[in-house]
C-alpha cells in the first residue's frame, strides 16, 4: 500500500492476482493498470504522470484479461 498527499494506492503484481483478489480490489474503487514509462513507450502509449502510465481497467475485465497483455505487470486500485 502506498499513501501520500491525501491519496493512496494498493499495488499487486498481476501474476499473483486471482479472481477473488481482483474482486476484493474492485471494492476499493476504480482500478488502473500501472506501466513504467519505458514499457509504455514500447506500447506507443504516453506516460502522463512522468515515469508512469496508467490505464483504466474495464469493469468487466477479469484476471485473465490482465494477464493476456505480456507487458502488464501491476494493477493499482487507487482511491
Description:
The structure is a single chain. The protein is an alpha+beta fold and 79 residues long. It is 25% helix and 33% strand. The protein contains 3 helices and 5 strands, in the order E-E-H-E-H-E-H-E. The protein has a 5-stranded antiparallel β-sheet with strand order 1-2-5-3-4.
Strand order of the largest sheet: 1-2-5-3-4
Shape by Cα distribution: globular
Helix content: 25-40%
Strand count? 5
Q: What structural class do you assign from the helix and strand content?
A: alpha+beta
In whole angstroms, the N-to-C terminal distance is 11 Å
Q: Flag low-confidence runs.
A: 71-79
The Cα radius of gyration reads 12 Å
- H/E order of the elements? EEHEHEHE
- Major pleated sheet: 5 strands, antiparallel
In DSSP terms (H or I, runs of 4 or more residues), the helix count works out at 3
The averaged pLDDT comes out at: 78
List keywords for this structure.
79 residues; alpha+beta; 3 helices; 5 strands; disordered C terminus
What's the structural blueprint in terms of helices and strands?
Layout: E1 2-4, E2 7-13, H1 19-26, E3 31-36, H2 37-42, E4 52-56, H3 63-68, E5 74-78
Antiparallel strand pairs: 1-2, 2-5, 3-4, 3-5
What's the gist of this structure?
By secondary structure, the chain is an alpha+beta fold. It is built from three helices and five strands, in the order ββαβαβαβ.
Amino acid at each position: 500500500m502506498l499513501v501520500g498527499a491525501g491519496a493512496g494506492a494498493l499495488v499487486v503484481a498481476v501474476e499473483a492476482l486471482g479472481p477473488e483478489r481482483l474482486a476484493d480490489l474492485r471494492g476499493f474503487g476504480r482500478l488502473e493498470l500501472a506501466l513504467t514509462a519505458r514499457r509504455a513507450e514500447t506500447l506507443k502509449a504516453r506516460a502522463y504522470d512522468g515515469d508512469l502510465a496508467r490505464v483504466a481497467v474495464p469493469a468487466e475485465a477479469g484476471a485473465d484479461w490482465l494477464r493476456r497483455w505480456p507487458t502488464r505487470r501491476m494493477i493499482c486500485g487507487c482511491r
